[in-house]
Request: fold
Amino acid sequence: MDARKLARFDGAEHMLACPICGGALARADQRLCCPAGHSFDIARQGYANLLRNQGSQQHYDRASFAMRRRVFQSGLYDAIAHTIAELASSAVEQLETRDAEQAGRLAIVDAGCGEGFFSRAIRAACDAPLCAFDISRDSIQLAATTDPCDNIVWLVADLATIPVQTGCAACVLDIFSPANYRAFARVLAQGGCIIKAIPTAQHLKEIRQLASSRLKHDTYSNQRIIDHFARFCHIEHRCTVSTTLELDDDVRDALVAMTPMLFNVDTAGMGWAALERATVEAEIVVGVPRR
Ligand SMILES: [Zn+2]
Reply:
């Protein structure tokens, strides 16, 4: 196996927890092992699958993650990624300033990382230990195979049993992805935060307008999600980040195909050629769990 891909798991014993017993997971050759004897293979692509029940329901397949990647490469999500990377770096810095003994040990956890676009952006901005996981093996395989760096820990894992040690993370990222705030709070160090990105009503408004006659709800509000977040967390920071770009044909096709708004909608005969540009807009909230 490629030594650089194995090296991603060096030092895992400071960050990873066995999903079965909670013991520290350390790399032993091409496996991750806990002191109680549970062990997990490191796949040759450079990730480990920690799911106990294999073959869980997958909402996306390989082709859809490849399309998502095409959209990410268009630049539509760059401003959001940049903002999140800055917020994550400053979360790490703040905690390290408060407790110098923690320097170099506090982790960033990307929960529901998909094909890894935001993790890679964070890695470029900050060198804290970074664990990125998703329940979809296809997405993690794509992320691990194409990741040029040797220091992101890619895992197949689920939200309820985050395979990260209690209290070791400076921040948990929850970007356009489901949340489990109790599980997030467990892995956070005292003072650590959740950084959550939520689409706004303006997000992909051009697609919403074109498809409005076929959508069940032609308006969208993120208020319920924000309210839920605020019940679990004290909100410390909020901002809205927006990007509008002209689309070329293949980005437009990929965007239409990957947009959850259009899942289960009959889009036959839609005039997508009229979709010349798209707006991507997210509200980013940073919160510290109420304890
Ligand atoms: Zn174990």
